[in-house]
Specification:
With about 400 residues, the chain is α+β, with helices and mostly antiparallel strands. About 35% of the residues lie in helices and about 30% in strands. The model has no long low-confidence stretch (mean pLDDT about 95). It binds flavin-adenine dinucleotide.
């Protein structure tokens, strides 16, 4: 008799797990609360689906413990395995600076091939069906939905976290895991913007700048990232801000003081930056404002000078002092973070089911034998660049292979 496996949640991890298990001979039922599977996939990569990264390192995915968990996942299903699997389903990859997209650059292609694979492999699909509880009696799982119940030998939970709840992931799966005895690290929004107390650059909203941003929580720098940031009405956005946001969210949840350090002109070292500003200001006859034009957008130069405490007009006797003051300011603009985007704005959840309660070789729960977990429901979250989907596919594959065996 083939093993009866129920998978809860038809996102990336759930679809991958379902196809893998069914192709390996299991009797697979996939339950999804939305009218169809893969809703979040359509929104990924701005509709283009950055479905993997050509290199995944330990630094690209944040998790509370050491490297062992991720190392085992990567050994079982590497980024190259993801690309091969998708090639076999009809997706030709294209790399943009390491970010992998389908050649057509359409997220729909990824969800379509998964839907085709689900149908072809014989997965029984129940959509518009929300799981409200799971009860294990002896060796049988009862999966409870409104108005119906399913029985299974094993269950895979792939209900995601709490990010983008309009795509279905509202945290109910985490409640079910808690009830089953799992510890859950409080979920917080990640990959979203930061809001700044007394935001000094409000007037420059819309400005894009190259910068290195670092997040300090209770006096300790926890993470830095470099790239293009965007000034918004309430704070800072852009990929570098997204990548450090998880630390701000967690710090704020814990009531800690969270600071943002912005270093502008990140491609110049301290000496080069001081020399550049000094050359622009001293002896050129330029006002400090004029001296900044060409280095920063004019929309930003004004508020930059104001916040650096530098008069925009030329004061010949003070030029050297002004240049030093300004270059020092550009090296470290320190702001107080008072919030982040909420779950409706976040691309990912930081937090989730504790990794030390899951065996990475099989993705099986160490608390409830026969229960498997994969994807964003677990306490692991990646940077922008295809790392979160990589983890969803890889963990989904491992859970499907073992949950159906
Ligand atoms: C706007 C946006 C853009 C993104 N872009 C990228 C990107 O380009 N690259 C990248 O790597 N990552 C990206 N991500 C993150 C990535 O999409 C997720 O990390 C990944 O999809 C998580 O997959 P998952 O299967 O674990 O969870 P989800 O995709 O959230 O799927 C969970 C599924 O479970 C269903 N479900 C939940 N509860 C129940 C229940 N009780 N009963 C039945 N069904 C239930 C939900 O409806 C949903 O379909 C993006 C996320 C967002 C929001």
């Amino acid at each position: 008799m083939p093993k009866k496996l129920i998978i809860i949640g038809g996102g990336s991890a759930g679809c991958f797990a379902a196809v893998t298990a069914a192709e390996n001979g299991a009797d697979v039922t996939l339950i999804e609360k939305n009218p169809s599977v893969g809703k979040k996939i359509l929104a990924t990569g701005n509709g283009r689906c950055n479905y993997c990264h050509d290199k995944v390192t330990y630094a690209d995915l944040f998790r509370p413990e050491g490297d062992e968990f991720l190392s085992k996942v990567m050994k079982s299903f590497s980024p190259e395995d993801v690309l091969d699997r998708f090639r076999s389903l009809g997706i030709t990859p294209v790399s943009k600076d390491g970010y992998i997209y389908p050649y057509s650059e359409q997220a729909r292609a990824v969800s379509d091939v998964l839907k085709r694979a689900l149908a072809k492999s014989g997965v029984k699909l129940y959509t518009d069906t929300e799981v409200t509880d799971i009860v294990k009696k002896e060796n049988v799982f009862n999966v409870i939905c409104e108005g119906r119940e399913f029985e299974a030998d094993s269950v895979i939970i792939t209900t995601g976290g709490k990010a983008a709840p309009n795509t279905g992931s509202d945290g109910r799966g985490l409640d079910i895991c808690r009830k089953l005895g799992h510890s859950v690290t409080a979920p917080v929004p990640a990959l979203t913007y930061l809001t700044i107390d007394g935001h000094p650059f409000k007037k420059a909203a819309g400005t894009r700048l190259s910068a290195t941003v670092s997040i300090e929580v209770s006096g300790k720098i926890l993470s830095s990232d470099t790239g293009q940031i965007q000034i918004t009405k309430n704070g800072i956005s852009g990929i570098p801000a997204f990548n450090i946001c998880r630390f701000a969210s967690r710090g704020l949840l814990n009531g800690e003081q969270v600071k943002l350090h912005i270093r502008l002109v990140p491609d110049m070292d301290d000496n080069a930056l001081t020399a550049e500003i000094t050359e622009r200001i001293c002896g050129t006859g330029c006002t400090p404002y004029d001296a900044l034009i060409g280095l920063f957008p004019d929309t930003f130069a004004d508020s930059l000078l104001k916040n650096a405490g530098v008069a925009p007009d030329r004061i010949p006797d003070n030029e050297k002092k002004t240049a030093l003051k300004l270059s020092e300011y550009l090296r470290d603009i320190t702001l107080t973070v008072d919030g982040t985007g909420d779950f409706t704005q976040a691309q990912v959840t930081s937090g989730g089911v504790a990794l030390n309660e899951v065996d990475p070789v099989a993705m099986e729960s160490k608390i409830v034998p026969g229960l498997f977990l994969a994807g964003e429901i677990l306490d692991i979250d990646g940077k922008c660049g295809g790392y979160n989907l990589y983890f969803a596919w890889a963990s989904g594959f491992i859970a499907g292979k073992n949950g159906g065996a």
